[in-house]
Structure formats: structure tokens, C-alpha cells
Amino acid sequence: MADEKGSLRGDVEEGEEPVVAVTGSAYPGKQAEEEEEEEPMKVEVAVGADACSDDLSCGEADIDPSLLELADEEKCRSIRKQYRQLIYNVQQNRDDIVNTASDSLTEALEEANVLFDAVSRTREAALDAQFLVLASDLGKEKAKQLNSDMSFFNQVAFCDFLFIFVGLNWMEGDGRELSDYDDNVALSFWETVQKEATSWMLQAEKFHFIFGSFKSEPSARKPRLEHRKKVHKMEENGDMPTKLRKLDLNSNQEATEKEVERILGLLQTYFRKYPDTPVSYFEFVIDPNSFSRTVENIFYVSFIIRDGFARIRLDQDRLPILEPININQVGEGNDPSSHCRKQGVISLSLQDWKNIVATFEISEAMITNSY
Amino acid sequence: MLQKPKSRGRAGSQPERERDGGRGGGGAEEAPSTSRGAGGAGWQGSRRAEASPKAGPRSQKQLELKVAELVQFLLIKDQKKIPIKRADILKHVVGDYKDIFPDLLKLAAQRLEYVFGYRLVELEPKSNTYILINTLEPVEEDAEVRGDQGTPTTGLLMIVLGLIFMKGNSIKETEVWDFLRRLGVHPTKKHLIFGDPKKLITEDFVRQRYLEYRRIPHTDPVDYEFQWGPRTNLETSKMKVLKFVAKVHNQDPKDWPAQYCEALAEEEARARPQTGGPAPSS
After folding, report:
1. Where is the composition biased (Basic and acidic residues) (chain A) (predicted)?
2. Taking a C-beta distance cutoff of 8 angstroms, is the pair A5, A11 a contact?
């Protein structure tokens, strides 16, 4: 009961018939006054989406009982079909409808109106609503068209005027586009337009710190790069000496072998002269006049020893001596030695060299110079 | 410190000095999270101890630091011209000072106005996004001084805005490209200056809120329409755009009566006392 009172008091919402079951005793006097003008409803079933929705008065007291019967399914289907057809047509002929000169929108609306008279169910009413949305959108388009007809703004002329404004004068009717010109022209065009445009806008400038944001690494790298560049430059300047050195190295390779052979020859000559007499290592290699040559001699002799043409060992005075190795001995003697290859490091300082020269009283080098 | 807003060129010399003064004792160029680490010792202790920190007495220095950070944050966020969200401000800068956020914002807005000549404005009422706009009118001579500000997109923007307004505040995307094609700007071709023009116009400008990009319903093939965005209404006006168009045509704005009337009406509406103002107090 309470609900029914509420719906009565709420008056008629569009298209809704209030649900009422009137029992005389339950009515408060106040309510009776309010609804005096309204005729008490005797209908017990609420019917939604009534046909005459724009008639807000509740005076539709006598509902046509035929509406309460199950509406004819066939009829409803045909109404829905007609609506869909109408919507489709409108969508297809959009351009024609939006055109301000044509009346096709009005015609479509009238057609929809006729259809709506037969609508009694929500399903068809939903289609009607869909059509209404479509029609109103198109109506808005049409209205916009009307506006633009009034304000006669010529885009093409605007474009030409832009070119003239920037300073590109060419013949009218030439149909030229900016892309026909080279990049510099385009750049200057946009820069000029930009300059003019910014004077009409209150844009805030883009904020940047003058020295960039807080990362300071890039500046630290620069000195290192510069240093590398300088070093590189120096190396480049030294092109000439490098080349010479390369040549030297090349010749040095052959020179080493030649020297070794030469010294081997000297050694073997000595051994032939004095067979079975080992030569003192120091006496052989030391050059009393040149320390560097002494070192070279040691270097070459080590090759001889490595290749197995001579042998170095300590004699009873624990001084190193060079002994020849015969080719015969190579087969026999080398077997035990090949198992245990020995390495020796000889270091000679300038002072040592002087001492040796003095001690051994070496007056001249055994290894003569080739040049 | 206060000076009447004159040309932009003059104001340029001021900010450097003012900025140092406004920063207080805080680290000048460091990341804006200094105050969280360098907060007063007692304040820090209480923050860690309690789950929900109370608004303890904050020193003047801390407040100054916070406001300075907020100013920096807003300036840098504005570089991309994308509206700054209130949520971002609260997350990155304000943090525990949430309770005095409105005051902080008001102070920051004041500083921005007095020092830089920028106004902090809410993009739309109740939108909780903010942008910076210049309060100073641009001056011809500034163009040379400004130097390289990146790609010159404002020119293209102004042309599009002009088109939109002159065609009744709304224009179809196809019409825009028909026009721009003659200027060598194509939606599908890479442009020398603008790169990807379609992206620039339909995405970047829209994200910056200069333009609105809406789909036109019931169109086949799908078409879109452009309208002015909220930022445009704040940074420029119909009258200014009309004057731009008129200048290009070398004519008087009154030669387009419909548009002129519309622009005039907007001017009058603006001249009436505004209900909204700068940084809101909500």
C-alpha cells in the first residue's frame, strides 16, 4: 500500500501509468485533496512506453483495452523491419540529408512519426530511439552547414595568402604547392609563420637550465679525450721514424740469422783450430770496446746453444765454457739432454762487463765485426 | 621583486637573481627530493616512528624549500606542455606535506607569477590538472633572442586553429589535410620539420590540450573532427586568432562579420569578472 501511495504522489512520469489499487478506507484525507484533479485509476496493470509520450497529463484514464491484449507478433516484426529500413536508408543517403538544400531529413522524420503511432512495445520503441539519435546527429551536421554558408571563409585563398605573407610570390592559378620548392624555402616559410603565430599566443617558454641539468660527467670526459688526441698526434708526427724502424726490424730479422751463422762459423773455426779445447764463454762473447756489442754477442751465442751447435757448461773453476757438439754426438748426446732442456739466464751489467774485461784481461774481441 | 609586467625581454634578466633568492638554502640544481632527505632531524624521527605522520611544526626553511621544489617541478614538467596532474605533484614533490598542499600551491603560483611571469592555471574547473601560461604579451624583438626552442610547431598549430575557428569552430580531419597538403604537409609522408605530421596534430596537440579530436558518428569511412581544446582558450582567444588570419590576408578582421561578432562576444564574456582564478584553493 505504501508503495502505491508513493507512485501516486510521484505523479505521472512520462509514459507510465501509475499502479493503483484503490481501497477507500486507507486513504488519508490529505492525499485525497492532492489527487483531486486526477481521476482515480482503475487499471491494475502498468503499461510501459505508452504511445502518446508527449502528452504528460494523466488524463489518459481510459486505456484502450486492446493494448493489453498480446500485440500481434507479425505486426511488431513488420514495424521493426520498417524502422531498420529507415535507419539504413538514412545512413546511406547521409550526404543528401545533410545538404542544406534538401528536405530528406524532414521526410524521414515524418516517416518515423507515422511508424511510431503503431508502436506498443519496448523493442520497437528502442529502434525508434535509435533512429531519433541518428536524425538528431544529422540535424546537427545540417545546422553546421548552415553556419558555414554564412561566414564565407575561403580556405584556398587563405593558403595563397599564407604564401604571399611569407614572401613567396608566384603567379596566381599556378597551382603550386610548397613541396615543389626546395627545403630551405619550406624552412623559412615555417619559421616566418612561427614567428607570427607566437605573437598571438601566451605560451610559457620551455624551461631549461642554462648549463643543462645536474649531470656533470660529459665535461669530465673531455680532457681525457683531448689528451688522447694529443698523444695520437704525436704518434702521427713520428711517421718517418716509425717507417724507418719497420725497415730496420725487417732487416734485423735476416741480420740476426746472418749474425748467428757468422758467429757459428767463427766458433767452429776456432774449434777446428784447437780441437777438444773448450773456449771460455766470456772470452768469446766479450767485446772490450763495446758493451752493447757484448750483449749482442751473448744474444747470438744463445741461439747457437739453443740450436745445439755448442754446449755451455761450468768447468772446474766454475766458469762457463763453450764446448763444441759434433754432428756425431748429436744423435747420442742429445737424447739425455733433450729430455731435460735447461734454461739459463745471463745478466750482465755495465760494471760486470768492465770487471770481466779487467779480470780476464781481454784486449780484443774474438767475434770480429762484419762491418 | 615586484615589477609591472612589461615586455618579456626585460623580465628575462630578473629570474636568475630571484631564483637564487627563492631557493633558500636548499641544493640548487639537485634532484627535487632533497627536502625529504634533508628534513629537520626531529621531523624525520617522528615520521619514521609513526605510521601516519602528524603535521608537526614545520620550520619556515622547510616550507621555503618545499615551495622552491614545487616551482622547479612545475617548470620542468611544463617543458612537454602536457598538463600537470595533481596526483603527480602530490607523489613527487609534496609527499608528507599533503595537508598544506593548497597553501603550497598558492605560494608556488605566486612565485611563478612574480618571478617568471607565468600563471599557474587549472585547465578546466575540477579537472585537477594544471598548466603554465605566460602573463606577458609577446614582443617582436624577442623572436631573435629566444633562440632555438625546438621544432616550430606553433605556426602549424595557429594555422589549424585559424581553420577551425573560421569554419565555425569545428572542422573535419579530411578538410584539414586537404588544406595542409598544399603547404607540403601530408598525413602519411615524413615532413622535413614536423616529422610525423599526423601524429603531431592528432596526438601531440591533443595531448597538450590544444585541440580536441572527436570521431564523427555514423560516418563511413570513419572521419574525425577537430575543435579547440581547453588550453587554446587559455593561451589565446578567438579575437587573436581572427586577427592572425586577418593579418595574413592583409585585411581587417571585420571583413568576416560572423566570426568577428563571435570573437567580440567572447571578449566581452572574458571581460566580465571571472569566477575562477589562478591556483585553486581546493
Report:
1. 1-12
2. no
Place of cell 605566460: B134
Residue B153: partners with Cβ closer than 8 Å, 6 or more residues away: A194, B194, B200, B204, B205
Contact B221, B199 (CB under 8 A): no
Q: How many alpha carbons lie under 13 Å from residue B277 in its C-beta half-sphere?
A: 9
> From residue A81, how far is each of A110, A122, A201, B259 by CA, in Å?
17, 15, 55, 45
Q: Are B249 and A158 in contact (CB under 8 A)?
A: yes
Taking an 8 Å cut-off on Cβ atoms, the answer to whether B167 and A161 are in contact is no
Select the CATH number that applies to the domain covering A255-329+340-360 from these four: 1.10.4100.10, 3.30.1490.270, 1.10.10.580, 3.40.50.720: 1.10.10.580
Among A189-203, A230-244, A349-363, B230-244, which stretch is predicted with the lowest mean pLDDT?
Answer: A230-244
Q: Which one-letter DSSP state was computed for residue B191?
A: B
Contact check, Cβ <8 Å, A153/B143:
no
Q: Is B249 left (phi over 0), alpha (psi -120 to 50) or beta?
A: alpha
Largest CA distance in chain A: 160
Within 13 Å and on the Cβ side, how many CA atoms surround B49? 8
- Segments making up each domain of chain A, as ranges: 73-147, 255-329+340-360
Cell for B269?
A: 564574456
Which residues lie below 8 Å from residue B222, measured CB to CB, with a gap of 6+? B215, B216
Q: Is A271 exposed, middle or buried (0-12, 13-18, 19+ CB in 10 A)?
A: buried
Q: Residue A69's pLDDT is what?
A: 54
Find the angle CA(B98)-CA(B100)-CA(B105) to the nearest 5 degrees.
95
| A314 φ/ψ angles, rounded to the nearest 5 degrees | -95, 135
Q: Which one-letter DSSP state was computed for residue B195?
A: B
Average pLDDT of the residues of chain B: 78
What sign has the CA pseudo-torsion B207, B210, B215, B217? Answer: positive
- Cβ contact, residue pair A200, B240, below 8 Å: yes
Between strands B171-172 and B224-228, the pairing is: antiparallel
CA B257/CA B185 separation, integer angstroms: 30
Q: Determine phi and psi for B85, rounding to 5 degrees.
A: -85, 145
* DSSP letter assigned to residue B96: G
Give the CB-side neighbour count of residue A239, counting CA atoms within 13 A: 3
Name chain A contacts of B118, Cβ cutoff 8 Å.
Answer: 204
Per the CB < 8 Å rule, is B218 touching A183?
A: no
Read off the C-alpha cell for B69.
621544489
Cell readout for A281 is: 764463454
Q: How many residues does chain B have?
A: 282
CA–CA distance, A140 with A146 (Å, rounded to integer): 10
Q: Is the pLDDT of residue A191 over 60?
A: yes
Q: What local confidence, expressed as pLDDT, does residue B163 receive? A: 92
If contacts are CB pairs under 8 Å, which of residues 142-181 in chain B contact chain A?
143, 146, 149-150, 152-159, 162-163, 166-168, 170, 175, 178-179, 181
DSSP tag of B114: I
Lookup: cell for A364? 780484443
Q: Is the dihedral of CA B185, B190, B193, B199 positive or negative?
A: positive
C-alpha cell at B95: 609527499
Select the residue from A201, A211, A216 to test the B interface by mutation, using most B Cβ atoms within 10 A. Answer: A201
Distance (Å) of CA B6 to CA B10, B17, B134, B264: 7, 18, 12, 25
